[in-house]
């Protein structure tokens, strides 16, 4: 689950990390009120969306007067913003963060994540912040500092000092960095986070460190014990189809292609996507209907695939072990009866109750293209898309 910057900064503050004074606003009037409550005469108006890259897209504006605060907030609120990090989707700007403006001397990068290679919570830092960190890592890897935290010892103060020196900070800034890192480490553990990113963590002209941006991502598998985090969820920032899928306990991820896939089992789903690509096609989604799929879940899954107008063919690939092919067939028939289907459907069924499943589909009168195996099905799906084009 992702969080807005204003929520991330609230979490940081809860863990004793100093953040610039700021308030969230949902209308231009609220934005002006927020600015009035923040000392100083420079403010930053920041679009709150679940994507970075806002600066380059016009979602971060420095305002020198209250009129400018109102103007920028008005221009952003109610619009949608696409950035180079929003995966081709324009996200709604429902709120803006009004933040205390600061004078930046230098921008650093600091993140915390779970490094699966070393099985440890890991800090990644760089003196080159404010930019695409992947680019820094690729072009100047020597400017990236990595700290794997020992699971038993936890983060030690001396390690934060080493990090400060490695980033070229002075003694006072290194002390401030230590407080930030120890706070982030506690937050990361207690809230079961998957990623925290401060980009930039800025050195200001007054010599202090300041947390100017915050991205937080939590581990969904731990959501059951973090009601406070779940309450912060903003589903308007999420993919509509994925939200609908999660309500039906379906493992669904939207992809870029045009061949919809309905598969049971995550491994088979990935294999199906691979084989589609091997045949020159592009999957429109990852979908695992699960081992214990009921007729209702299959119906919902099929409707989800049909809801996208990008889908030009559907490949149903079922290997029935626990799941029964007659149940799958009933689900498909029910979904098609409900919403209709205008694209070719290629079906490969194998395993438990396969003859019953095939018979049901045949008798339903649906125009279904039967496939013998995974490769045959993928090939026929790619062919069907070509013919439709
Ligand atoms: P992002 O583009 O979505 O990652 O949004 P950021 O919050 O990182 O803002 C983008 C850039 O705006 C930062 O790298 C800074 O250069 C600038 N910026 C953000 N906050 C401030 C601020 O308080 N003062 C100044 N002068 N610049 C800021
Ligand atoms: Mn940023």
TrEMBL record:
Signal peptide: none annotated. Its cofactor is Mg(2+). One of its GO terms (cellular component) is succinate-CoA ligase complex. Mg(2+) binds at residues 199, 213. Substrate binds at residues 264, 321-323. It comes from the Bacteria. This is Succinate--CoA ligase [ADP-forming] subunit beta. It comes from Luteimonas aestuarii. The gene is sucC.
